[in-house]
Design a protein that fits this description.
- This protein has 192 residues and is mostly helical.
- It has one domain: Ferritin (Up-down Bundle), CATH 1.20.1260.
- Helices cover 73% and strands 0% of the residues.
- It is built from seven helices and no strands.
- Helix 3 (35-70) packs antiparallel against helix 4 and helix 4 runs antiparallel to helix 7.
- The longest helix is centred in the first third of the chain and has 36 residues, at 35-70.
- The protein is globular, with a radius of gyration of 20 Å.
């Protein structure tokens, strides 16, 4: 059983009926710990961990575009697009960090650029196509990650944020696929 499925199982097990909910609400007001309060704390902690994983993906995306920009392998038009997409990832990171802080957590820090270069195999990039293929792989992965994040978050007010970010990542992937001359997929439901 995964951590996510355990949390969902706990949520179902801790569901309380109407009369019990009123009693639990009264105990919460009095500052007495209740199973529902314990679940809320666990759900917030889980959401912080999930949102921090998303922040880590954004850090990686920001670094990948930085490495591409500094590589000298991109034409001016492609470089402009890469810097724009990097800006989107910075905005995603900032929105996610704000969400983590709202939940009382600390956003995960970025690694150094050299660590990302090693992780991403930047030394093997020899031309613009290689840089674009790396970016496309990361963007597709990010779109799928955000789609998986939506049902995993206990705080439903973050669902729209994750969905909007999935849309951005899918747009990035479509743009990069087009730049690489990839054929338009013939089947729908490309992501997820």
């Amino acid at each position: 059983m995964t951590d996510l499925s355990r949390a969902l199982h706990r949520r179902a097990a801790l569901g309380l009926g109407g009369a019990t909910l009123s009693a639990a609400g009264m105990l919460a007001v009095l500052g007495v710990a209740t199973p529902r309060n314990a679940f809320a704390a666990a759900a917030s902690s889980q959401d912080v961990a999930l949102l921090n994983a998303a922040i880590a993906l954004e850090h990686e995306g920001i670094a990948a575009y930085q490495l591409g920009a500094e590589s000298g392998l991109l034409t001016p038009d492609v470089l402009k697009t890469a810097v724009t997409f990097q800006g989107h990832h910075k905005q995603h990171r900032d929105e996610l960090a704000a969400a983590v802080r709202r939940l009382g957590g600390q956003p995960v820090a970025a690694k150094g650029l050299s660590a990302y270069a090693a992780d991403l195999g930047a030394a093997s990039l020899k031309d613009q196509a290689g840089v674009l293929k790396l970016a496309l792989k990361l963007e597709r992965g990010a779109a799928n990650a955000y789609l998986g994040l939506i049902p995993s978050l206990a705080q439903t007010d973050f669902h729209v944020l994750a969905a909007r970010m999935a849309g951005d990542e899918a747009f990035h992937a479509a743009t990069l696929g087009n730049a690489l001359g990839e054929a338009i997929p013939q089947k729908a439901l490309i992501f997820g």
